[in-house]
Write a structure and sequence with these properties.
7-stranded antiparallel beta sheet; alpha+beta; 6-stranded mixed beta sheet
Length: 581
């Protein structure tokens, strides 16, 4: 199919604001259309990107393509405030496309990160003509990911960098209109290029370059709980309006992985049509938010791990052919769930998530009271311990455990993804509980959680958890992790402080993974109270953390209790299949 290319097409919104779009349309006849909406500049979006399907392939497959700047960004009119206008603007854009003479009336959407959020925001309106979406690395609950977390801690390194980047782009736009100064643009540009220094500023809410620019930063800092401000953005209650099937794509080391998995299972149950519920698809690879080739300094997942090698573009074409063109055979032979199983480093097709043959297994925490560091006496065992005990460490927010890998935005090498944990696990404020050297492979595939019985000298503190695969040579690779701010142990909307010394049962959501622990390896759990700057530091005072200074911070003596009365345990989804190697 031959296409014509139109630049800066003005698409009118219901309030009179015009959004700019680049349009590839058929030279003759009508075609189904794929829409991408983004706040990062449509003109900078190339025809090929590792996280997204190849645009040339989509065009060659006979699709029209519309790439649009979100409201208030780059060539579009209006003011940009994250998420505030994306539902209505997405719905209006889909309606505009469906009415064009070159459109056959059917629309699909694709894209990653914020480009995925706008897909769900559009689908939640029940937009006429929207037949399918393919959101990658994204969320339907913006509090839980990416801005805060499922445990209530602020996703500090993401929030500071992303806001600096968006403010810099806004300042550049304003400068062109004579509304901002060059010095302000330069300051924001430096902050976006070198965001690490922003994370050290206290109080967090008063980072000068961010609070000085205003906009939405102050609102985010004023709402640390999942209150009405964030409820207004959450789409879970709106899934009943979604009639478009979704191709959900995630990465085991992506900061959205918890939301990707949860969105798939929730949409399977609550989407607004049988097609949308039954048409949900899930793909998860050994990827982070930036890299999708599966190659890292401390762990390489082999040549088949890369997104393009496994055929991501072809899967998009088949998915859109099914739902936009009505080709009922397009997805024949394509399993609804496709996951990369680490350890054996293989792709595997599944019919459901979580896997139906999951055996939820408790791995109990126990020790002789000295589980501190990876060389301590902490033990993971499937046998319930008969003796009571506890392990103690000092959490000093002035000396937090540094981020070492994980499901986060990889700001610098070694920050995100799979990283050897030996350096951080040598700290006295990290407790390690390890199982025996394995004689047979053990597969862990599915959601992972940790139940702890804790007490503290503070009225509030954090608890972090990390699942680790220990290799025979001692290399220790993180698989998944989580954090819980103790004040949110009863729910993210309600704060409840602790009584110092009292024992509380808490659950840490560690998202999920798929890994075969091979013979000679060990399963390990690392517990602490900080993961900085992936998350902000709990000041331990019970106050408003974002507004507290370093001088206000207090150390916390934290205890992990275990034994018959306090059965602290790691709950792993064990898969008993005999074909592992």
């Amino acid at each position: 199919m031959q296409h014509l290319y139109d630049i800066d097409v003005r698409v009118p919104m219901r309030d009179g604001v015009a959004l700019a779009a680049n349009v590839w349309r058929p030279a003759e006849g009508r075609a189904p259309t794929l829409l991408v909406r983004l706040p990062y500049g449509k003109d900078a979006m190339g025809l090929g990107h590792d996280m997204m399907p190849n645009l040339l392939t989509l065009l060659e497959a006979g699709y029209a393509l519309v790439v649009q700047d979100c409201r208030g960004t780059y060539r579009s009119e209006g003011e940009f405030v994250p998420h505030m206008a994306d539902r209505a603007d997405g719905e209006d854009t889909v309606a505009w496309i469906a009415d064009q003479p070159w459109s056959d009336g059917t629309v699909g959407m694709f894209g990653a990160s914020y480009l995925g959020m706008v897909q769900w925001e559009t689908a939640a309106t029940g937009a006429r003509g929207l037949k399918a979406i393919a959101p990658t690395f994204t969320s339907i609950d913006n509090y839980e990911a990416p801005w805060f977390s499922a445990g209530g801690a602020l996703s500090l390194s993401v929030v500071t960098w992303w806001n600096a980047m968006m403010y810099a782009a806004d300042a550049q736009r304003s400068l062109a209109l004579g509304q901002d100064t060059l010095s302000q643009l330069e300051e924001l540009g430096q902050a976006a290029l070198f965001p690490e220094r922003l994370n050290d500023v206290l109080p967090t809410a008063e980072v000068p370059v961010l609070t000085g620019y205003g906009k939405w930063w102050d609102d985010w800092m004023a709402h640390p709980s999942h209150d009405g401000y964030w409820d207004a953005m959450e789409l879970t209650p709106e899934l009943k309006n979604v009639t478009a099937p979704a191709l959900n794509i995630g990465g085991w080391y992506d900061l959205y992985i918890g939301q990707t998995l949860r969105t798939y299972t929730t949409a399977r149950q609550k989407a607004g049509s049988a097609e949308a519920r039954d048409g949900q698809r899930l793909i998860v690879g050994p990827w982070d938010h930036i890299s999708v080739d599966g190659v890292y300094a401390d762990r390489s997942f082999g040549p088949l791990a890369a997104a393009q090698v496994m055929g991501l573009t072809d899967l998009h074409v088949k998915f859109f052919d099914r739902w936009l063109r009505g080709d009922t055979t397009a997805l024949d032979g394509v399993a609804p769930v496709k996951i990369f199983v680490m350890g054996i480093d293989q792709w595997r097709d599944e019919q459901e998530w979580p896997l139906p043959d999951t055996r939820w297994t408790d791995f109990h925490l126990t020790s002789a009271g000295h589980a501190n560091t990876m060389d301590g006496d902490g033990v993971l065992t499937t046998e319930a311990p008969t003796d009571a005990g506890r392990d103690t460490y000092l959490y000093d927010p002035r000396r937090p455990v540094p981020t070492a890998g994980g499901a986060c935005l990889p700001m610098t090498p070694g920050f995100g993804g799979p990283v050897d944990q030996r350096t951080v696990a040598a700290r006295e404020d990290v407790l390690s509980f390890a199982g025996p050297v394995l004689e047979e492979p053990v597969e862990v595939t599915g959601p992972v959680s940790l139940t702890l019985y804790v007490s503290s000298s503070a009225v509030d503190t954090d608890f972090t958890a990390k699942l680790v695969d220990v290799f025979p040579d001692g290399k220790a690779i993180n698989l998944c992790d989580g954090i819980l701010r103790a004040r949110y142990r009863g729910g993210l909307a309600t704060e409840e402080l602790m009584a110092p010394g009292a024992v509380y049962e808490i659950t840490v959501d560690m998202t999920g993974t798929s890994n075969v622990f091979l013979p000679g390896h060990r399963i390990r759990l690392d517990v602490s109270s900080s993961n900085f700057p992936r998350y902000d530091r709990n000041t331990n005072t019970g106050g408003v953390i974002a507004h507290e200074s370093e001088e206000q911070m207090v150390p916390a003596i934290n205890h992990i209790h275990h034994g018959p009365e306090h059965p602290s345990r790691l709950v792993l989804p064990v898969i008993d299949r005999k074909d592992q190697s």
